[in-house]
Amino acid sequence: MPTNVSPEYKKAEAAFRQTREPTERLEHLREMLKTIPKHKGTEHLQADIKTRIKELTAEVSGPQKGAARTGPTRVIRTEGAAQVALVGPPNAGKSLLHSRLTGSRAESAPYPHTTNEPLPGMLMHNEVQFQLVDLPPISAELMEPWLPNAMQPAHAALLVIDLHVPGCTEDVISIRERLAEKRIILSDDWRGRLPGGLVEGLPGTEPVGSAPPEPEQPGDEADETIFHTVLPTLLVVNKVDLGLDPDEVTALEELVEARYPAIAVSAATGEGLDRLGSMLRRGLDVVRVYTKVPGKPPDMERPFTLFRGDRVIDVARLVHRGRAAGLKFARIWGSGKFDGQQVGRDYLVEDGDILELHM
Ligand SMILES: Nc1nc2c(ncn2[C@@H]2O[C@H](COP(=O)(O)OP(=O)(O)OP(=O)(O)O)[C@@H](O)[C@H]2O)c(=O)[nH]1
Ligand SMILES: [Mg+2]
User: Fold this and answer.
1) Whether the CB of 114 sits within 6 Å of ligand 1
2) Domain limits for position 28
3) Helix, strand, or coil (residue 114)
4) pLDDT higher than 50, residue 335
5) Same domain, 276 and 290
6) Ligand 1, closest atom to CA 239?
7) How much distance in Å is there from the Cα of 159 to the middle of ligand 2?
8) Are residues 174 and 240 in the same domain?
9) Cβ(53) to ligand 1 under 6 A?
10) Among 54, 79, 144, 211, which one is most buried in terms of CB atoms within 10 A?
11) Residues 290, 292, 293, CA angle at the centre, nearest 5°?
12) Which of ligand 1's atoms lies nearest the C-alpha of 106?
């Protein structure tokens, strides 16, 4: 049921949606709780907000006295351009992939349920770092109760499958359902366009991906989906070294309604893995921005990474943390602007831009 809320609430809600940083999220949640109209129609939402506040407080403050009952939150703080969760049925090869892609030496073994804890690792691609998080498997019978919460900070998911396992298609469907029950949506909607069809090179579908998001029209109704975690998902068809039967691919494509972009790989031989980084970068629309100080050449080694749609002020937040409000203007090189042209805080940055921030 739609609930009318105040502009203050809408503002806090939008801010919450904007950030995945736990302490900032917590701040926006508290503001949402403060500004939500207190009546019967908002009781559910109020309860949801309170639950998220509790979860995030635990996460931000770390292990607490008495936490043994529920255990640690197992939430990995995001580092790099984006956090990407590895999900899939048991034994699909998530950990071997993780190990290959990040050098993590994640434990991998020829029997199911080898992984019990989340493990972060960095995948580098063209100066962009993707934080891959290896996770325990999900099956129709079993999903660690903490897993949905551990997926909260993720920006995307890799759904790793082994098509040689009978019932693989049903596994994918159960995984989608189990996560959806916990309000984690494995979506086929990527910001940037990616090749469609389950496996590139095989008969497929239209490219998937969407136009850049329209600026949101601030309505006056509470967004009932605010606590859904929508993760653009890439289907990683693993173990292609064992052969790939196009009929199995087609069967999977027919049964799984979502047309995830997909990539066929082998964690064992490394085949196809080099394309993963570029697919993530295109799909997530990662933008690299370089910074310089006046009179000095820019640092072209370590870009700051943002997403398409981000602005000069977002770069300032990354560079200066809590002091971004002190940004006066920036000079920009790239972007089809005159070199060194002055731009304001709301100027949209593009890949390869060089910025000189004047605080
Ligand atoms: N032939 C082949 N075997 C693979 C490949 N990737 C993984 N394996 C094997 O598959 C088995 C399971 O690999 P894991 O990496 O432990 O799989 P997992 O998905 O992490 O399993 P859980 O932790 O139980 O969820 C191991 O014996 C791996 O060596 C691959 O690309 N080709
Ligand atoms: Mg594993």
Assistant:
1) yes
2) 7-69
3) coil
4) yes
5) no
6) 31
7) 13
8) yes
9) no
10) 144
11) 160
12) 15
- Give the number of whichever ligand sits closest to the CA of residue 113: 1
- Helices 22-35 and 7-18 pack at an angle, to 10 degrees, of 160
For residue range 183-221, list pLDDT tens digits in order.
Answer: 999 998 888 877 655 555 444 444 555 554 555 566 788
* Alpha carbons 259 and 210: distance in angstroms, whole number: 13
Domain end point (choices 284, 315, 347) = 284
CATH code of the domain containing 113? 3.40.50.300
Same domain, 254 and 312: no
Number of neighbours of residue 1 by Cβ within 10 angstroms:
8
Pick from 100, 101, 108, 162 the residue to mutate for probing ligand 1's pocket: most ligand atoms within 8 Å of its CB.
108
Between the CA of 280 and the centroid of ligand 1 the distance, in Å, is: 22
Are 202 and 163 in contact, with CB atoms under 8 Å apart? no
189 and 45: one domain?
Answer: no
**133, 248: one domain:** yes
Burial of 135 (0-12, 13-18, 19+ CB in 10 A): buried
pLDDT band at 321 (very low <50, low <70, confident <90, very high): confident
Q: Tell me: do 277 and 267 sit in the same domain.
A: yes
SS3 percent helix, strand, coil of the chain, rounded to 5, is: 35, 20, 45
108 lines ligand 1 (CB under 6 A): yes
Residue 333 lies in a domain: yes
**Predicted TM-score (pTM) of this structure:** 0.88
**Number of the ligand 1 atom closest to the C-alpha atom of 96:** 15
- Minimal-distance CA residue to ligand 1 atom 1: 239
Question: What letter represents residue 83's amino acid?
Answer: Q
| pLDDT at site 71 | 57
Distance from the alpha carbon of residue 91 to the mean position of ligand 1, in angstroms? 5
CATH number at residue 297: 3.10.20.30
Q: How far apart, in whole angstroms, are the C-alpha atoms of residue 278 and residue 283?
A: 8
What are the tokens at 99?
């190990």
State how many domains the chain has: 3
The predicted pLDDT at position 75 comes to: 87
- Pocket lining: 118 vs ligand 1, CB cutoff 6 Å: no
- 267 Cα–ligand 1 center, Å: 8
